[in-house]
Amino acid sequence: MDSRRWDERYAGTDLLWSAEPNRFLVPQVAGLAPGRALDVACGEGRNAVWLARQGWEVIGVDFSPVAIAKARRLAAHHDVEVSWVVDDVAAGDLPAGPFDLVVVLYLHLPSPAMADVLARAAAAVGASGTFVLVAHDETNIADGHGGPQDPAVLYGPDDVVRALGAGFTIERAERVRRPVETGGGTVDAVDCLVRARRVAPP
């Protein structure tokens, strides 16, 4: 999906997603000393803004100008500063590192484009820095609820670990279940969760 179609999705006045941070991100960064953070494909900015509220110096990048405009408003609402960049993470360079934290949340691209973005995101993680990814897992089509239904843009923990390459200690690489409220009751989505720490230069 190109930026124009995402602009159309984000065009409403309300947030397309919740204003609250991703439920898995919060515990994965708990206890980390705030530093420089990069939110890759940040969308409407909920996670970048939450990180800024915790004291992080954050850059959020997304290819949708409409999403970034909404992210700016969300940051202003919470009275925090975030550096916003409109750019296609699959085609352009990521903001210059190193970063103490790089997060990639629900970014879905066909391989090898996805592997390339992950490798560049990993390279942006500085010494002793942390990488966190959360995404719809490749098993979600058969075993979960919602999310992309095209297997070409889905992946699993092992794919992420391979894309990160050497130089990381893998602290978590697993599938996690996320309850989703529907008209018929609560069902689970299956997500991919990876957290890694830089232990050697890229």
Number of helices: 7
| The number of domains | 1
Main sheet, how many strands, which sense, barrel? 7 strands, mixed
- Backbone structural class: alpha/beta
Q: Beta fraction of the residues? A: 25-35%
**What string, H for helix and E for strand, traces the elements in order?**
HHEHEHEEHEHHEE
CATH-level-4 superfamily name? Vaccinia Virus protein VP39
CATH fold label = Rossmann fold
Give the C-alpha Rg: 16 Å
**Strand sequence of the main sheet, in spatial order?**
3-2-1-4-5-7-6
Distance between the termini: 31 Å
Uncertain residue segments: none
DSSP helix fraction: 25-40%
What is the 3D shape? Answer: globular
Total beta-strand segments? 7
Supply the CATH architecture. Answer: 3-Layer(aba) Sandwich
Mean pLDDT: 92
CATH class equals Alpha Beta
What does this structure look like?
The chain is α/β, with parallel strands linked by helices and 202 residues long. The chain has a single domain (3-198), classed as Vaccinia Virus protein VP39 (Rossmann fold, 3-Layer(aba) Sandwich), CATH 3.40.50. It contains 7 helices and 7 strands; from the N terminus they run H-H-E-H-E-H-E-E-H-E-H-H-E-E. Strands 3-2-1-4-5-7-6 form a 7-stranded mixed β-sheet, with helices on both faces. Helix 1 (3-10) packs across helix 4 (65-77) and helix 5 crosses helix 7. The longest helix has 13 residues, at 65-77.
